[in-house]
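To illustrate the input format used throughout this study, we show a single complete record. The first block contains the structure-token representation of the backbone; no residue identities are included at this stage. The design step must infer an amino acid for every position from geometry alone.
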């Protein structure tokens, strides 16, 4: 699963710089997570860093975007390959 940011977000700006995949960005009203870039930090860390730093615990797993650990690792590897080409 990718992660998502709920309406409880207070726009504190602590999650965005913690994302190793640059999946977090400012949306129209609150921060949002691009599920195509979110690997739940698989490949980088043991736990999602945004969840670790969020002071209001508003970053749950997105039930609409289910992925296995293997799929998340494949996404991580794809994103790393794309970053090297850029």
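Output of the design step:
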């Amino acid at each position: 699963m990718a992660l998502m940011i709920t309406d409880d977000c207070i726009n504190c700006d602590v999650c965005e710089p913690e994302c190793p995949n640059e999946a977090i960005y400012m949306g129209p009203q609150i921060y949002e997570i691009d599920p195509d870039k979110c690997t739940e930090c698989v490949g980088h860390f043991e736990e999602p860093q945004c969840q670790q730093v969020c002071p209001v615990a508003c970053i749950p797993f997105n039930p609409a975007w289910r992925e296995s650990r293997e799929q998340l690792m494949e996404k991580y590897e794809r994103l790393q390959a794309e970053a090297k080409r850029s």
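Structural context for interpreting the output: The chain is about 25% helix and 5% strand. The CA atoms of residues 39 and 75 lie 7 Å apart.
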